[in-house]
Design brief:
Shape: globular
Structural class: alpha+beta
Number of helices: 10
Helix content: 40-55%
Order of helices and strands: EHHEEHEEEHHEEEEHHHHH
Mean pLDDT: 93
CATH topology of the largest domain: Elastase, domain 1
Length: about 350
Amino acid sequence: MTTNGGFEPVFCTIVPPHVLDKLAQHEDPALAGPARRTLERDAYERTHRRLTTVIGAPSVAPPAAAAPNQPHRTIYDCRHHTELPGKKVRAEGEDPVKDVTVNRAHDGLGATFELYLNAYQRDSIDGSGLPLDASVHYDKEYNNAFWNGEQMVFGDGDNEIFLDFTIPIDVIGHELTHGVTQYTANLTYFGQSGALNESLSDVFGSLIKQYSLGQTAAEADWLIGAGLLAPRVTGTALRSMKAPGTAYDDDVLGKDPQPATMDDFVHTGRDNGGVHINSGIPNHAFYLAATALGGNAWERAGQVWYDVLTGGELQQRAVFADFATLTVTAARARYGEGEELQAVLKAWEQVGVRTL
């Protein structure tokens, strides 16, 4: 259950619709075809998720919770079909298999579990030992990865624009963090609250990557999805928290549309009101706060953001100013009037979000 109202899991993908829309219009069928099929599949899964939420899922036995503070991972292989979860191919405690995609998914689930447990004392996604399930090799040339409210799903990409979606560990952490948000603040997936939902997944996805690599804020690349783009693409990642709007500038994908400040806030009805675009603003605020403080970003800056996400005061339809104000309150409550508070205040000021 959430801390502030109804339980409303949503269907969340890592690749924004505007990217796939651009690809789907390309004259080369090798690029347009996979993008169109991915958009169609995403639309189906989104509708299925909504219907399941409304009418209820079929009655099944609830999954057995793991031992306290221990992950319980299961990886399935869809074998390029779409029926979930697929064939079970690796369970918790089993040795690595020959399929590197299966092993990467297993390791990414584990890295996410470890960050939340070791940094924030959170036992899995729901805080109560929820088993972590993931399906790989979903569909054919599927250009996305998603959290559907119950599990992770990874496509293999088309190898023209996108590679295997298990490659970037922050993609795995990003999608699983949608589950954390689902079980806590349950932010409405539209407009500024939806952009906050996406931003929190980017923030903790990046922190999971940094934690697994042992990187400080200064050492991190602050990219989301580095390693996902195929060699032909002119770009480094899906998004940049350090410099929103610079992750790619490609003749096929177009230019990264993310703004870094409120001066360039994008007003659009597409992508649930621009949730993947305007998330660049709170993303950049976190980057500024974390790098100003230095050291490990998951410690002080990450702790403040986690306190807000899980503290029960963040409303489902919160806008940027609401969230910013809560980070100020959380920084003051945990660290007093010191540099943590000043870093948070300055970060929001730099991106043009006023604290109330």
